[in-house]
Each structure stands twice: as C-alpha cells, then as structure tokens.
Amino acid sequence: MMTLVELKMHKDINETKLTRVIIWRKKQMNIRLENINDWFEVENLTREAFWNVYQPGCTEHLIVHNLRSHPALVSDLSLVIEDDSKRIIAHIIYCKATILSDSGEKIEILMFGPVSVLPEFQHRGFGRKIIEYSLQKSKELGYGAVAITGNPKYYRRFGFKSGSEFQIYYANLPRTEEAPFFMIKELVEGFLDETVGKIIELDDYTVSDEAVEEFDLKFSPKIKEKRPGQLV
C-alpha cells in the first residue's frame, strides 16, 4: 500500500512537469520534478556520486530515501536533470527546516541536500544548474531563506554566507565555535534581520551504519576504500 507521499508522486507520473530545458554539447537536457518511477535510479545515482568521497562507502543514498517520507519534504523542489536518453544525471532534494530564535519564535526556512551528480558528469556545471534553478523556484514558492551544510568554497558562489553572519548558529556546536560548513542564503533580503537563534536539523540526516549496510543490499556491490581527504 502506498504512503500519502507515494500517492502524490504517483499522481504526478502522467503529468511530468518539464521545468526547464538546458543545452549541453548540442544535446537537450531537462530539469523536471522527480517522480516515484525515478526513486531507485536517483538513490543509485546518489550512491555513485558519494561513494568513498567523505568516508568509505557513503550514507547519502539512504538519507535521500528517508527524506522522501518525511513530512518536511518539499516535493515541489525534488528535481532531476535527465539527458536526451532520459537517463537521470543529477538530483536535488529540499526539506523545511526551523530556526528557533532566542525569543522562542520558530521561523520556517529550507534546507537542501544531498545534491548528486553522476561521476562522469561532475565538474561540468550540472550541479550549479540544478542548484540555481531550485533556488529560483524556492523564492517563487515564497520561502525567505535556505540553509546548507557543505563546502564553503563551493556554496559561496551561489550567495551563501556563514550562518553566524546572520546570527543563526549550528545547534550542535557552541556559538563561540565557528562552523564554516553551515551557511545560509536569504532569498528575501532582510528576511532574517533582528533574528538570533539556532537551526534545528531533521533527524533523518543521520543514519546508522547498520541501516546503511542493510539498505546497500538493494544495490550492486561496491568496494569501500579509505582515501586521503575523507572526513571519517
């Protein structure tokens, strides 16, 4: 039996919305909404994109799987890029997040990630295209700000700044300790003015090793390797 999320996505299958056409090397590629038929392909794409990057193996494909059934999911911002053969080469997922201000106010913003691009298409601008388009759509949907945890060198090009510049802090660290990986972009100028507080992340961004091992059984075997530069 389908969940409510699956039913909504299933309804959209025959109404696949083409959101943008991009041209790459004279080939037409489409940015469109993800639908339920894409799920396994997207999870496999995510696994391929992150495998052995930040740790031996990866967890991001299970995180994507779990986020789809979370009530905070923003399905209008679950986007894919497909090439002219209908193969999915990139994916992005968004969820609602909450800033808890020091005065007790709760402010709804967005968080995105993981962002995944097939290895053979990385460093060719597809990550940038899907991020820029999704940020534009986020603003059109009425959201005032987006948060991200990631590489500052990469995300600053999209206008993200350290959360501390907005006096919004990463909840898991003392405010006196800089968290350069936690960044925010205002979609509406001044949206976070006079707000001081902390971001409340979803629990679904954390998964156990045991859950990942079980989930990995659905995919082709891959070798986990310890590599220089990994975080774990």
How does the SSE layout of this entry go?
Blueprint: H1 4-12, E1 18-24, E2 27-33, H2 39-50, H3 60-67, E3 79-82, E4 88-101, E5 106-117, H4 126-140, E6 145-149, H5 152-155, E7 161-162, E8 168-170, E9 182-186, E10 197-200, H6 209-216
Parallel strand pairs: 5-6, 8-10
Antiparallel strand pairs: 1-2, 2-3, 3-4, 4-5, 4-10, 6-9, 7-9
Helix pairs in contact: 2-3
What tags apply to this protein structure?
single chain; 232 residues; 6 helices; globular; disordered N terminus
Model description:
- With 232 residues, this protein is α+β, with helices and mostly antiparallel strands.
- Helix content is 24%, strand content 27%.
- It has helices spanning 4-12, 39-50, 60-67, 126-140, 152-155, 209-216; strands at 18-24, 27-33, 79-82, 88-101, 106-117, 145-149, 161-162, 168-170, 182-186, 197-200.
- Helix 2 packs antiparallel against helix 3 (60-67).
- It starts with a helix and ends in a 16-residue tail after the last helix.
Number of helices: 6
Can you write the helix and strand succession as a string? HEEHHEEEHEHEEEEH
Radius of gyration over alpha carbons? 18 Å
| Share of helix, binned | 10-25%
The average pLDDT value, as a whole number, equals 90
> Any low-confidence stretches, pLDDT <50, length ≥5?
1-16
Distance between the termini: 38 Å
* Secondary structure category: alpha+beta
Major sheet characteristics: 10 strands, mixed
Number of strands: 10
Shape: globular
How much beta, percentage-wise? 25-35%
